[in-house]
Write a structure and sequence with these properties.
Strand content: 25-35%
Largest sheet: 9 strands, mixed
Subunit structure: Monomer.
Helix content: 25-40%
Number of domains: 2
CATH architecture of the largest domain: 3-Layer(aba) Sandwich
Distance between the termini: 66 Å
CATH superfamily of the largest domain: ANL, N-terminal domain
Protein name: Phenylacetate-coenzyme A ligase
CATH class of the largest domain: Alpha Beta
Shape: globular
CATH topology of the largest domain: Rossmann fold
Strand order of the largest sheet: 4-3-5-6-7-8-9-14-13
Pathway: Aromatic compound metabolism; phenylacetate degradation
Radius of gyration: 23 Å
Structural class: alpha/beta
Function: Catalyzes the activation of phenylacetic acid (PA) to phenylacetyl-CoA (PA-CoA).
Catalytic activity: 2-phenylacetate + ATP + CoA = phenylacetyl-CoA + AMP + diphosphate
Number of strands: 21
Length: 420
Amino acid sequence: MRVEEKEKSVESLEFENIKSFLKNIAENSPFYRKKFREIGFEVNDFKSMDDFSKLPFTTKEDLRDAYPLGMLACPEEKIVRIHSSSGTTGKPVIIPYTQKDIDDWKIMMKRCYEIAGVKPTDRVQITPGYGLWTAGIGFQLGAELLGAMTIPTGPGNTDRQIEMMLNLKSTVLTSTSSYALLLGEEIERRGLREDISLRIGIIGSERWGDRMRKRIEELLNIESFDIYGLTEIYGPGIGLDCKYHNGIHVFDDFMYFEVIDPDTLEVLPDGARGELVITTFKKEGAPLLRFRTRDITSINHELCECGLKYPRIERLTGRSDDMFKIKGVNCFPAQIEIVLREFDELFSEYQIILDRFEGKDRAILKVECSEPDNTNLSKKISRRIKDRVGATFDVELLTFGALPRSEKKTKRVFDLRDEV
């Protein structure tokens, strides 16, 4: 098949998937039926994929406003499970799942394990939380479908985690990056690095940089894989980076992916960084049209060295809603992380404190360092941030381990200005 014919067949399949999806939500989702009526859209108006960018977005605020089951797009008796997203304030986001939704999710999770090189003979220790959060149960379902032994320890209780890891000879760790780091440092402190059997880490739930990745891999003697997902879509497992670690493969046979400019809302071409938007065209319980994830990335449809057909998104560089402003300058934690990677003396852990001093806004960067008394280094880092970001940060160098470790997601920015 020629390249032109292949591209045409892919677009034809995308079109048919999206057309069927639009017909479904127009008929079965009161939320989208109302949204389409407000913009005067009829499914027959959708003539080609060029029309897709004219369709409305869905936001997390829409999902909160639809609490509890306003996003339902199938008979309630088909719903077999409810999940809720973590870290929200006010009304939670409730996502209903049919059995087909769960089966599809299991397939994607199993695919992630296989991409990472996990075998049915492996023993998978699952440390993320269970309950309304999707992470723990998602990792478990995929591992069980693969045929691997699951060890569902859940979050916390580090002593018990290490005991189980040693006694059951866990070979795969699923975790947040923060908890993987905590486990690794505790294992090193106890002199147990040579006693563990881990070889693979499947790690996600929060943005983590290359410095932190390298540290985790050294401490646990593993190869780590970055998993992507969010409850609003399915949960963890909608994408994973392969052994070449040059982007996260995302499963476009279940979802349609776009990257948009978060300000203009225009769709961006491959390679351009913007906000990831996902359409779940196979979902039954709560299908979503053009859901704005707020995650900043880029997309690449070129074939990867590994041979997987799935497109890749760049590892997340931030969120469109995690910006903070200091003295009129818009800043993102990801910008600070890029600067910190330039200094070999620094470790991966840092905090940004925003407060007021003598009536003026102040930004303090606390970062762990192998040379905590090096005042020249702190000034050099501050100058580099000023040059790159445009804002002045007071840099405090701390000894290794001075900042708290987390069993969940690590909070990086603390805005205390309203408390002063």
